[in-house]
Every structure is written in C-alpha cells, then in structure tokens.
Amino acid sequence: MNLAQAKLGMVIVDLQNDFLAPDGAYARGHTASSAAQALPTRMEPVARAIKRQGGLVTASLFTLWPDAKGEPMISAHLKERRPFLRKGDFAPGSRGQANVDLLLPCVDVSVCKVAYSAFFNTQLDWLLRKAGVDTLVVCGIVTNGGVASTVRDAHVRDYHVIVLSDGCAAFSDSAHQAALTDMASVAEVMDSATFLQQVSHAGH
Questions:
Q1: What domains does the chain contain, in order, with CATH numbers?
Q2: Of 89, 114, 160, 171, which is most buried with the most CB atoms under 10 A?
Q3: Over the stretch 111-163, which tens digit does the pLDDT of each residue have?
C-alpha cells in the first residue's frame, strides 16, 4: 500500500483511564496490564504523524451506561469476569471513560461503544466515510478482543487496514501473538517504527 495516495484514519481502541490509569477501575481491581499501560507513549507519535498527513484520529470509549436507578448496565459475562466493576466506572462523561491524558489532544473524535468492536452500534463508519478515510490504522486493547473485532469489522467494510503490532496488548503474549497472526489474513501487520517510516516517505 502506497501511503502517499492513502486517506488515513486511526482508531485507538479503548485506551481509557479506567483501563490504564493508576486511579482507574482496573487498577482498583488489580487487573491493569503493564503491557497496555505502555501503549499511549508508543502511539502518541503515530497519532500525531497521521494528523500531519491530514488524517482523522478517532478513539472508541468502552462505556457502561446507567440504568434508570443510575446503576451500570453490565453484560453478564463481563460482570462474571470483572466483579469489581461498580457504579461510576466507565460512566459516560467521566474521567474513567475518557481517553488517557497523553492521547487526549491527539483525538479528533471519540465514539462510545458497548461491546468489543468499535463499529458495533456506533457512528464510527459514518465518521470515517464522511472524512474520506480509506486506510485505517488500528491500535489499542485487547489484541484478541476489541482490536481483533474492530479490524474484522473494518475489513468487511472495505477499509484497507493496518494493525500496529506494538500498538496493541493482551493479557498474555501468546494471546497477543496468536491474534496478530490471525489478523494478518485481513490486514497488514507492522510495528509502529515501520509505519512511521512509511508515512515519513509518503510526506516527501
């Protein structure tokens, strides 16, 4: 893929405070991933490079919407796996739901999501098409969950997809590597240094 002709977009999947920050819900539940916490620093220069090329940087925000009593509506399988989740976690408009501070200035638009894929029941596809995006760079968490689901949904919508191998993380390296191998059937998989080099060449 020649990036000089591409109209770039980026989807940052779920790099949110409640997942990553020291005061977030997952840290409170002793479930925060050090591999995931390293991602914002690595992805910030990528987001800025895409913006310099005139690309649209989007982010998905996993959201627990409140019911009529203000209690979070949590799917049964998530509640079983993450029993520490409580009222206020991933709440719309909260600090926990927000993109991590480092990436916040880079994100042009965020969409709220309720399941793995950033496309499911969101306006992401509409936003990307309105911006003319044809090549989508995907990063975030987790590699074998939200990232893989988003990548496959992008593929069936005819986007050219680039997955940043060092821009994703899972709860085990084996799950991470297996998911990258699987996504290679529908996307280009490369590390961020290779992508930045290609973008730099495309800009000249």
A1: 8-202 (3.40.50.850)
A2: 89
A3: 999 999 999 999 999 999 999 999 999 999 999 999 999 999 999 999 999 99
Task: Please answer whether residues 146 and 60 qualify as being in contact, where contact means their C-beta atoms are separated by less than 8 angstroms.
Answer: yes
Cα three-residue angle 142-105-6, rounded to 5 degrees: 70
CA torsion through residues 139, 142, 143, 149, sign: negative
Give me 146's structure tokens.
């939200």
How far is 135 from 99, CA to CA, in rounded Å? 22
Sheet containing strand 56-62, strands side by side: 109-113, 56-62, 8-13, 135-141, 160-169, 188-190
Backbone angles phi, psi at 70, to 5 degrees: 85, 5
| Contacting residues for 8 by C-beta, under 8 A, at least 6 apart | 50, 53, 54, 55, 56, 133, 135, 136, 137, 199
Buried b (16+ CB within 10 A) or exposed e, 157-191: eebbbbbbbbbbbbbeeebbeebbebbeeebbbbe
pLDDT tops 90 at residue 29: yes
Q: What is the pTM of this model?
A: 0.96
Provide the 10 A C-beta neighbour count for residue 153.
18
The C-alpha atoms of residue 4 and residue 1 are separated, in whole angstroms, by 9
Q: Are 82 and 31 in contact (CB under 8 A)?
A: yes
Residue pointed to by tokens 């098409």: 129
